[in-house]
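User: What would this chain look like folded?
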Amino acid sequence: MKEVSIFKPKAGTPFWHLNSEPFWQLIPYEGGYATIVELQKGNPYSAATIHKYIKYAVIDKELFLLLRDSSNRETLKRALINSLDMA
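Assistant: Here's the prediction, encoded as structure tokens.
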């Protein structure tokens, strides 16, 4: 029997969910924060929406500096994998 999944992954999903974190910020082409709020009322997860409205994302400077070090990246990677194992 074929397994049916209700989960339909979309590449844009992490962009929007990370936007509620203090280390990540989406930068729209125009309209600032009001654009982000308005987009979240619809279907912001599509790749087309991201391409059309989002210019780029910014990460926190301290996080960027930490991620430049390979041992820090490995520590973060292990923590993320371990958190998935617990779910």
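The first strand starts at residue 24 and ends at 28. If you want, I can go into more detail on any region.
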